[in-house]
Amino acid sequence: MAKKKKPTLNFATDWSYAPAPESTDHVTIENRYDLFIGGKFVPPSKGNYFNTINPATEKRLSSVAEAEKTDVNRAVKAARTAYDKYWSKLTATERGKYIFRIARVLQERAREFAVIESLDGGKPIRESRDIDVPLAAAHFFYYAGWADKLEYAFPGRTAEPVGVAGQVIPWNFPLLMAAWKIAPALAAGNTVVLKPAETTPLTALKLAELLRDIDLPPGVVNIVTGAGNTGAALVNHPGIDKIAFTGSTAVGKIIQKAVAGTDKKYTLELGGKAANIVFEDAAIDQAVEGIVNGIFFNQGHVCCAGSRLFVQESIHDELIDRLKDRMETLIVGDPLDKNTDIGAINSKMQLKRINAYLKIGTAEGAELYQSACAVPEKGYWCRPTLFLNASQSHRIVQEEIFGPVLAVQTFRTVDEAISKANNTPFGLSAGVWSDKGAKVFKVSNQMRAGVVWANTFNKFDPSSPFGGYKESGVGREGGVHGLLPYVRLT
Ligand code: NDP
User: Which among 102, 176, 283, 290 is least surrounded, fewest beta carbons within 10 Å?
Assistant: First the structure.
């Protein structure tokens, strides 16, 4: 007798949630934002502004100043003056108090920051509310605590600030990246010029308002908006003592060349292509959750995303069935809806890049699977995607896609898993799923990756260092390690 097929629930058609939109009436977005230099908002020298849009609706949210070289000069000068005249002379305890204040006010205004982050960047409100903003505040709290304890951070050494830090951040975690950069810089006694990404400048500008409102001394933090040219002007400025960059490996290489032969300190947090390895003895449902979180969190716009899945051959079919079932339950749509799991792709350009990889993967011979969910008509969207039967030489396996696209491969032995996982130009993060502690230790010790998660994925904490090997970058951010690039030790 033929086996009866079990009835399946089609989440795309049989199940729907009532909308649960987060309100926006407590949020003010100005029609236009100037540059934040010397504690004030000032117009850009050439009077140019560019639009920032909501990627979920394609509607304009605001216009933002485009900083020219002269504006970057002004900002660096303001940061230098603030450093010489005020910030470097302040006692460490007083410096710490300012940073604690930033953390507290950020917490108080968390809802406003979360909504703006979701509007400007497209990420689900559940993530901006529960991860981005609380973690950003946690970074300020954490580093505020270090401000008057630097002698304990580096026992037997004296830690001096380096001076003015130039910081360039990407669009995937706009506020959180600003916090990762600004908090340790200020705690160690430096002043800052920060350039947010072109597509997501609004939470950095809100942060500028916050810094002004808490009376942070003028010039201690300056925020210059603009495109890649503004970033390049900042990086190449001779008045910058330390560069902190998060973004693509391609731009990271340009920056590394630019600092060669100077005495600028630098840290580069670049791309990744993390292996997520599931052994046959893993708790399979837990692993499926970890895979989903690893690749679909923040639409896959995550440098440490678990974008290469390695499944032990014996459990491949069962795991993939369960993963597909789970993917069918994921809701793609309005980032402000609290039911949404996957929001909008950050920009038209990024969607184009992801779609190009979908074509490349198919042409390379991998098998494309996408969940059947509905997506809104307007805006930039990509359904959660798997590429099955991928192989090591495929571009979708070797290159960073930065979208909700997972390349799946199999392995038979522990050694095969390790060698396949390490066969990548990147080395930012990895995940290992197994019931056996000894196996987890063996594999994680042999991963050439800055962070290895065991039976979990994408967990972050301000006290934990983060950074890469190989083309994933240079230096560490977070924890005591994250203070090191901002000090000179004697
Ligand atoms: P970029 O590396 O171009 O952007 C990161 C930041 O650097 C932005 O603020 C950008 O400005 C700025 N920038 C661009 N060119 C220069 C330059 N020559 N000198 C100094 N600063 C510069 O990333 P993209 O936005 O172009 O994304 C491209 C790809 O990079 C993605 O598909 C993804 O693969 C990867 N990426 C990785 C990230 C990570 O965290 N590892 C983060 C973001 C992207 P602007 O925004 O105006 O271009």
Answer: 283
Find the residues whose C-beta lies inside 6 A of ligand 1.
168-172, 195, 197-198, 227-228, 231-232, 235, 246-248, 251, 254-255, 270-271, 303, 350, 353, 400, 402
What's the one-letter identity of residue 267? T
* CATH label of the domain that carries residue 203: 3.40.605.10
Residues 234 and 333 in one domain: no
Positions in the chain whose pLDDT score sits under 70: 1-9, 11-13
Rounded CA separation 302/170 (Å): 10
- For residues 227 and 249, state if they share a domain: yes
Same domain, 436 and 473: no
Give yes or no: 289 in active site: no
Look at residue 135 in the predicted model and tell me its pLDDT.
98
If asked whether residues 417 and 439 sit together in one domain, one would say yes
**Helix/strand/coil for 290:** helix
* Cα gap 119→134, rounded to integer Å: 17
**Structural domain includes residue 4:** no
Number of structural domains in the chain = 2
**φ and ψ at 346, to 5 degrees?**
-60, -35
304 has catalytic annotation:
no
pTM > 0.90 = yes
User: What separation in Å is there between the alpha carbon of 381 and the centre of ligand 1?
Assistant: 20
Q: Is residue 325 part of a domain?
A: yes
Regarding whether 114 and 252 lie in a shared domain, the answer is: yes
- The catalytic residue among 112, 198, 269, 477 is 269
How far is Cα 97 from Cα 261, in angstroms, rounded to an integer? 37
* Whole-number average pLDDT of the chain: 96
**Tens of pLDDT, residues 234-270:** 999 999 999 999 999 999 999 999 999 999 999 999 9
